[in-house]
Amino acid sequence: MLEDSYLKLPYDLSGSMSKNRFRNEMLWGLEKMFELYKTNQDFFMVFDYVCDIEAHLDGKIEFFQIKTNNAAKPYSITKIAKPDKSGKSILGKLYAIKTADDSEDGIVSKLAIVVNVPLKTSDNVTHSTDREISFDKIDEVSKRKIAEYLIKECSVQTVDLSDCYYLYTSMDLFNPHDSLLGKTINFFVDVYGEEPKRAKVLFQTMTDTIEMKACYEQKCINYDEVILKKGISRNELQKILEKHIDISDESIQIVKQEIKEIYPEFSVCTKMNAALVAVTKELRTNKVLIKIEQSIVKYILGNLELFDGEIVDSILLLDNVYKKEFPVEYTFQERHVK
Questions:
Q1: Do residues 176 and 165 lie in contact, with contact meaning Cβ atoms separated by under 8 Å?
Q2: Are 103 and 92 in contact (CB under 8 A)?
């Protein structure tokens, strides 16, 4: 199982989060979360445990080591593969994760160095236009040099670079906040079709959450604790996002007024308004609700003569027609405000 194999991997709780530089580097994970969220797959992002940033996907994990270069000088093969005075190299630290993976099918799907400068290989090519480079696809001289270093450092007989990558990021890893705020707004627009309310508060909530997870420096006794203390799930990200959906547009206010008139009892009115908020938010992303909405609109346009009476009669008519279309978890109130 992924959980058991993961807990056997070497982890690093050296306290590097005390450095502001490292705090900024962690924010690259926010952009990665945005990317994964758009794929509609479930994920957990883990910060600063086995590796700087980890994407836990369906039975597999992607590991990312974040590096910055003040001089804006390209990273060479020697820079990433030659061990330093401690006997460890940038790529070697990543590859050690792979060698420690004793699961039958392997839980490691990607090992990547994320750097703010391009890679320069041994054939004297600077890959300034390549955002993602597979070490398995670079020139043979570079590959041999990497293999020689890793064989010695990791005490292995052979080296497999098929899942090892160099990611050249355009993000300012020294001062990422301004660019990430813009990317957060653009991501929100892509997902919900509108800008978030209190965009800066949304961004601060996300960055604070990442920092809190990365700053936790105690050993986790099981996988669930890793996710709880060091991770952020897709669902957790979605809950943060949903708090910043603007539901104050004119059509919503009209519906609220209709609810007040049709359901004057305070308790019923409160339940209907709560249902309105829930359904309005889900209509941005829930494919089932979107499909039902489109069907209702088509039905109304094709049967206009049935909707000349009171609004409450129209609601009951639509509820009778579409009740079975709604998933069972939707309440009477949620169906009616729809």
A1: no
A2: no
Note the pLDDT tens digit of each residue in 199-253.
Answer: 999 999 999 999 889 888 888 999 999 999 999 999 999 889 888 876 656 667 7
Let me know if 233 is exposed, middle or buried by CB neighbors in 10 A (0-12, 13-18, 19+). middle
Residues 6+ apart with CB under 8 A from 112: 62, 63, 64, 65, 94, 132, 164, 165, 166, 167
HSE, side-chain direction, 13 A CA sphere, residue 233: 11
Mode of pairing for the β-strands spanning 44-47 and 108-115: unpaired
* pTM exceeding 0.70: yes
At 40-65, the pLDDT tens digits run 889 999 998 999 999 999 889 999 99
Across 65-79, 179-193, 208-222, 263-277, least confident range: 263-277
* Residue 36: how many other CB atoms lie within 10 Å: 18
Taking a C-beta distance cutoff of 8 angstroms, is the pair 139, 122 a contact? yes
Residues 149/89, Cβ–Cβ less than 8 Å: yes
119: β partners? 75
CA gap 10, 12 in Å, rounded: 7
Interatomic CA distance for residues 215 and 47, integer angstroms = 9
Q: Which two tokens stand for residue 120?
A: 């320069």
Of the two residues 98 and 1, the one the predictor is more confident about is 98
Give the separation between CA 92 and CA 152, rounded to whole angstroms. 10
